[in-house]
Amino acid sequence: MEDYIQIGNKKVGGNNSTFIIAEMSANHNQDFNKALEIIKRAKEAGADAIKLQTYTPDTITLDCDNEYFQIKQGTIWDGTTLHKLYEKAYTPWEWQPRLKEEAENEGLICFSSPFDKTAVDFLEKMDVPAYKIASFEITDIPFIEYIASKGKPVIMSTGIATLPDIEEAVNACKRMGNEQIVLLKCTSAYPAPIDTVNLRTIPNMAETFGTVVGLSDHTLGTHVSVASIALGAKVIEKHFTISRSEGGPDSAFSMEPSEFKEMVKGIRDVEKALGTVTYNLTEKQKRSREHSRSLFVVKDINKGELFTEENVKSIRPAFGMETKHFKDVIGKKASVDIQKGTPMTWNFVER
C-alpha cells in the first residue's frame, strides 16, 4: 500500500510536501466577489487548496428555536440558534461550481465538506477531487459510508471524536472499499486553547490507523501548525479570511493573508530542515572540520628530542594528526627538527 494518496495533481503524505488547505468557510460574508478574492489571496499566500462547505440551513439543522437548537456551549456563537447561524454562514450552492472553476484557474485544488447526501450528490456533479468530513459529522457512520462509496479521498477531522469513534469512521470507509483516508488531529474550540491541542497525538494516530495524518488547526497564530510538521503532519487546514476586521461567523479564529503566508514559509522551512536520516557531511561541513582540533607542535623540537605534553598539544585547527593518537606520540623521539606551529604527522616520529 502506498504511503500517500492522490488529491487532484498533488501527492499527499509520504515524503511529499505538506498539503496546505485554506478553509473559506463563512468568511465570504455572503458576498460572491469576496469569495473570489479569498481564492486569489489564498493562492498568493501559498495554499495548495481552497475548501468550501456545502450545506443550507435546512440540510444541516431544523428551523426551530426550542432549547435543543439554542447555542449555549460557551462558544463565540452563543445566543443564537443553529439555523440562524447557518443562514449567515452557508455558501450558496449556485456559487460553488464557479468558485471551483476560479480556484482551478488560480492553480488551487478545490473541494468541500458536504453535510448531507444531497450535498454529496451536488459535489459529485462538480467532480470534486476529495471530500472533507467535519468533526461534528464523524459519528454519522451511514453518511461516511455514502461519501466513501464515491471512491475519492476522504479527509476526516477528529475534533469531537473518541478513539473508538475514529476507529468506527475509518472502518466505515474501508467497508466501502475506500482506503484513501486522511485523519486530522483537531480541537473543536474556536479559537482552540494551546494546551488542548495535544500534537503528540499526531504520530500516534498515524501508527494506530496507518493513514496519512495532519492537523485542522483552530489556534491563533502560526506556530502550532508549523510545529506539527515535525511530528508528522502531512496536511494542514486553517481558516482563511481577507481581514478579521470584516467580521463574520468564523473571522475571530481565521488567518489573514500575511499570517497564512508566514505559516506556509514556516512549514516549508521545517520540511527542508527535517531532511532525511543521514550522518554524511555537506561540503560546507567538511570545510568547517578544518577548524576542529588536531595535534600540533607548539614548541621548537630538535631531532632526537622526546615528544611531551609541553611541546605537542591538541589545538585548533585540524591540519595535524588526529587527537586520538596523542598518547601514542608522547615519549617517542623526533626524527627531524620541527618548528613551532607545524602540524604533527607520523613522519616526525622516530621508528
Automatic annotation (TrEMBL):
PANTHER family: N-ACETYLNEURAMINATE SYNTHASE, PSEUDAMINIC ACID SYNTHASE
NCBIfam families referenced in this protein's UniProt entry, alphabetically: PseI
GO biological process: carbohydrate biosynthetic process
Gene from which this protein is expressed: pseI
EC number: 2.5.1.97
One Pfam family hit: SAF
Domain AFP-like, residue spans: 294-351
Molecular functions (GO terms): N-acylneuraminate-9-phosphate synthase activity
Keywords of this entry: Transferase
Family annotation (InterPro entries): AFP_Neu5c_C_sf, Aldolase_TIM, PseI-like, PseI/NeuA/B-like_N, Pseudaminic_synth_PseI, SAF, SAF_AFP_Neu5Ac, SAF_PseI/NeuA/NeuB
Name of this chain's protein: Pseudaminic acid synthase
